[in-house]
Every structure is written in structure tokens, then in C-alpha cells.
Design a protein that fits this description.
The longest helix has 27 residues. Helices cover about 60% and strands about 10% of the residues. It has a three-stranded antiparallel beta sheet. Strand 2 and strand 3 form a beta hairpin. The chain has two domains: about 150 residues, Ribonuclease iii, N-terminal Endonuclease Domain, Chain A; about 70 residues, Double Stranded RNA Binding Domain. By secondary structure, the protein is mostly helical. It is built from nine helices and three strands. The radius of gyration is 19 Å and the shape is flat. Helix 2 runs antiparallel to helix 6 and helix 3 packs across helix 6.
């Protein structure tokens, strides 16, 4: 068992019966000999574990809210931005095994890689100890975020769409402007436009995050919800 795995176990509050699972969760595809040996499968599982736990906690914590309100809270708490924030709080980047072609690529891709690794760690927790240790960890780390704003949050794409539809402008139109960088650390540039109300670009480590950035930029020029 490596020192990193031992230290991360303490942070997670769970001693692994199979430490290799946690070790696998830290291996990014860029440093794996084969993709099957990376953390991508654990990331897939961890995403679902996070979704289930957050949905259950919100269901119990806000008994008076309707489905749409719970869905907006859920979207915010399981978003890439939230995962990046929690990964940073954990200093998870210290434990990740990843390779980057240059410093600029590393700077752009690091938050996205950390978010993906956090999901992989959740998957490893679930496989090793079942849902309970994953639930305990998620409740502890996400709990404070649930209390930050008692009004259900809206992501930028949702807010922009509601703004446009309320004014009879139709749906915002998203288009891919550019994709660059290596396969393991791509950078996407997406545009979003609303008829007669301009267009803005946004960049991110995935199409989804780039769309969010573009929506944020355009929504800001529209004066938010005003």
C-alpha cells in the first residue's frame, strides 16, 4: 500500500479492505498503460453513486419542495463546478497519477481531471464498503454546500433557457467552435446565441462545461434575470 493511498484513506474516513481499488481510482487515463487500467470505469460508477446519495439527502432534507426545485438543487450539487470545488478542498490533485504534455495543458485540464478522479474515488468507496461509507463521506463533504443558499440554485444553461423562453425567444443555440489539445486533456470552445440578443463563447475541458461557460457569459450581458 502506497503512502498516498494510506493518507487518502484517512481523509475519506474509510479503511479499504482492497486498497488497490483506491489506487486504481487515482490513475488517470493519460498515465495508464491501457484505458481499462485507468479510473474511467470507477468514475462512471461514482457518478451514479453521487447522484443517488444526493437525491436521497435532498428528498429527506427538503420535504416541502416540488420536483423541479429538488432537480435544480441536484443539478448544482452534482455539477462539475461543485466536484472541482470539493476536490480542491481535499487537495485531491496531490494524489492523482496523470501526465500532461505541457504546463498550459496541465493548468487547463487539472480541475477537470480532479473532478473525474473524485467521482472515481466515490466509485471505489462504494465497491469496497457498499453504499454506507460513500453516503457518510458525501453527506459530510456536500452537506455544507446544501446549506449555503436556501433557494434552489440554477445552472447558467437553465437560467439562460428560462430567460429566453419567458420572452418568447426560443431556445438558446449552442455550437462547437473549436476543439484542441490531446485526447486525454481536450479543450472545447462552444458558442451560444439567442436571436437578436447576441452570442458569446466559452471554453472548458468538456463540451458541457464549455456550454456552461458560454451561457454564463451571455446571461451576464443580458442583466441576469432582469
Amino acid at each position: 500500500m502506497t503512502r498516498d493511498v494510506v493518507e487518502l484513506q484517512e481523509i475519506l474516513g474509510h479503511r479499504f479492505a482492497e486498497p488497490k481499488l483506491l489506487g486504481r481510482a487515482l490513475v488517470h487515463a493519460s498515465s495508464a498503460d491501457e484505458r481499462a487500467l485507468s479510473n474511467e470505469r470507477l468514475e462512471f460508477l461514482g457518478d451514479r453513486v453521487l447522484g443517488l446519495v444526493v437525491a436521497e439527502v435532498l428528498f429527506q432534507r427538503y420535504p416541502g419542495e416540488e420536483e423541479g426545485e429538488l432537480a435544480r438543487r441536484y443539478a448544482g450539487l452534482t455539477s462539475r463546478d461543485t466536484l472541482v470545488r470539493i476536490a480542491a478542498d481535499l487537495s485531491l490533485d496531490r494524489f492523482i497519477q496523470a501526465q500532461h504534455g505541457d504546463k498550459e495543458t496541465a493548468k487547463r485540464s487539472q480541475p477537470s481531471v480532479a473532478a473525474d478522479t473524485l467521482e472515481a474515488v466515490l466509485g471505489a468507496l462504494y465497491l469496497d464498503g457498499g453504499l454506507e461509507p460513500a453516503k457518510v463521506f458525501i453527506t459530510q463533504r456536500w452537506g455544507a454546500l446544501m446549506e449555503e443558499d436556501l433557494s434552489p440554485p440554477k445552472d447558467a444553461k437553465t437560467a439562460l433557457q428560462e430567460w429566453a423562453q419567458a420572452r418568447g425567444l426560443g431556445l438558446p443555440i449552442y455550437e462547437l467552435v473549436n476543439r484542441e489539445g490531446p485526447d486525454h486533456a481536450p479543450t472545447f470552445t462552444m458558442s451560444v446565441a439567442i436571436k437578436d440578443h447576441g452570442m458569446k463563447n466559452g471554453t472548458g475541458g468538456s463540451r458541457r462545461s464549455a456550454e456552461q461557460a458560454a451561457a454564463e457569459a451571455l446571461f451576464a450581458t443580458l442583466g441576469g434575470a432582469s
